[in-house]
Amino acid sequence: MTRLTRNAARVSRSGPARAGAPAPPPEDCRLPDGFAVELAADTHRSHDGHLMLGGSPPRLLRLGPAAVRLLADGRFVVRDAGSATLARRLLDAGVAHPRPAPAPVRDTTLAVPVRDRADQLDGLLTALRADPATSDLPLLVVDDGSRAPDVLARVARRHGARLLTHPRNLGPAAARNTALRHARTAFVAFCDSDVLPGPGWLAPLLAHFADPAVALAAPRIVALPVLGPGLLDRYEQVRSPLDMGEREGPIVPVSMLSYVPSATLVVRRSAVGAGFDEGMRVGEDVDLCMRLHAAGWRLRYVPHVRVGHRHRTDLRAWLAQRAGYGTGAADLALRHPGRVPPLYAAPWSLAACALLLRGRPLPAAGALALTAVTAVRVTRRMPDADRPARAGTLLALAALRGTGEQLLRCATRHHWPLALGAAAVSRRARWFLAVAALAEGLADHHRSGTSLGPLTHTAIRRLDDLAYGWGVWQGALRRRTTEPLRPRLALPLRGRRARRPWEPRPVAPTSHQPEPATVETW
After folding, report:
1. Which one is predicted more confidently, 497 or 60?
2. Is the domain of 92 the same as that of 180?
3. Does residue 85 sit in the same domain as residue 118?
C-alpha cells in the first residue's frame, strides 16, 4: 500500500464529515470597487425607474433617486460604499447579475472523484490537459474503491495526476472531501469522470470569485451529442435533472434555482468547511448549497459556460437513477426543514385552485373573487407603478397559474400514489389525474422544444415522475417522516420584516453605508 493510500485509509477510518456541519460565514461581503452589475433581461422597471419587479421568487423593489441614477442604463460599476450596497441588494434579489472582469486561471486544483470508468476518466483528463488554461494546474484523482484500481492508476499516471485511493467505496461526498483535504490552492474545481468540459470553461467561473462572498460557481451541464440518439437520449437533451436551464442567477432555496449538481462546480476552499456530508449518498450537493447559503455565502449559476455530460439512457439504469434521486429528498427535508417542499404557495391561491377544481359556477365565482381581492391588495402596494391595476391583476393571475402548475406536478410526481389511490375510488379524481398527466406533459413538451413527439415526450415524462416519486416515498418510509411530502404555505410577514428562507443571513451595514433601496416582497 502506497503512502497516499495509507493516508486515505486513515482518513476513511476517522469517520465522515459531521452531518449538517455549518459552513463558516464569509468574513467580507462588500463588493470590490470596479465590480460591475447588470439588470437581468426579465426584470421589469417602471418608466421613472423607481419600481422594479424580478427575481425568483418575485421581488418588488422600490429605489431611491440615487439608485435610479446609477441604473439609468441598466448597468453600473461599484465605486463606493453606497453603490456596493445597492449592487449587493440587486444581486441577492436576483434582479441583476454580476459582470465580473476576466480573471486568470490560477490557484486552482482540479479534483476528479471516480470509481472504475477508466475510459471516461482518460477522456476527461485528456481534455483538461489539452486546454491551455488547465494544462498545468494540479490535478487530483480520487479512486473511490474501484474494482480495477491498477487500470485507474495507469490513466492517472499517464496524465500526471496525483492519485488518492480509498481502500473501499465511501461515496462521492467522501471522495470529494479527500480531494479538499489534499488541495493546497484557494479554489477547487470538481469534475465527475463522466463530464467533458470544453476549452476555456474554467476562467468565467473563477471570475465570479472576485466577489468575496461567493463560495461556489457552477456551469450548465448539458448532454454530450451521441450518434443515432434514442428516445431517452432525446428526452435527456431537454429534461436532464443535471441541466438547470439557461436562466442565469443566484442559487437560493425555495426558488426556481435552489441548487446545482456537483457534476462540475468550483468552490472556494475556505468557504466549504468540512465539505460535503459523507453520510449522504444522494443529494449531498443540494445539502452543501443549502448550508453555504444559510451561512451567508453567495452561490452563482453561470449557464453560458457549458460542460458536456454522458447521460444514462439505458431504461433500467435511467429509472434506477431517477428513483435514487428521489430517495434523497427525505434526508434533505430532515436536515433543512421547509427548504425542499413539493409545493410552495399562498393559501389564497390554493383555495382558489381547489374551488376551480369543483368545476361548477358558484365555486368558480369564489375563486375569481379571491383572485380579485389579491389583485387589489397587490395594486395598493404598488401605487407608483405605471399601470397599478394592470400590474396587480397580472401578478395575481401569475400566482394562481403557478400554484395550478405546482398542483399538477404534485399529482403526477411527489404525490402520485395518493392521487392514484383517490382515482381508484373517485370518478372526479380519475378525471383530474388523467387531465393532469396529459396537460402537464403537453405543456412541458411545448416549453422544452424537444424533437420528440408530444405523446412520446409526455409518456417518458410520466415515467420520469413515477420513478422519482417512488424514490421520494421510499426515502420517507425509510426515515419514517412525511417531511418531503408536506406542502408549505407562503404566509405574509407581520410586523418588522423577517428574513425569508431563501435570503442569505444579513450582513450588518456599517454606519457610513447609505440605504439606496428599500426592498418589499410579494
Report:
1. 60
2. no
3. no
Name the DSSP class of 407: H
Tell me what the pLDDT averaged over the chain comes to: 89
- Determine contact, residues 205/219, Cβ cutoff 8 Å: yes
Same domain, 91 and 164: no
Contacts of 474 (CB under 8 A, 6+ apart): 323, 326, 327
Q: Quick: pLDDT tens for 64-102.
A: 999 999 999 999 999 999 999 999 999 999 999 999 999
pTM of the model: 0.89
Task: Please write the tens of the pLDDT for every residue from 190-200.
Answer: 999 999 999 99
Domain membership of residue 84 as a residue range:
36-99+500-521
Side-chain half-sphere of 360: how many Cα atoms within 13 Å? 5
Q: Which residue has cell 404555505?
A: 489
- Mean per-residue pLDDT, 361-367: 94
Does 417 share its domain with 481? yes
Number of structural domains in the chain: 3
Residues 93 and 190 in one domain: no
Same domain membership, residue 68 and residue 190: no
Q: How far is CA 109 from CA 32, 135, 139, 172, 177, in A?
A: 25, 11, 6, 17, 13
Could you tell me how many residues make up the chain?
A: 522
Grid cell 382558489 in the structure block, residue: 352
Contacts of 491 (CB under 8 A, 6+ apart): 346, 347
Q: Which of 378, 392, 243, 232 is nearest to 312 (CA)?
A: 232
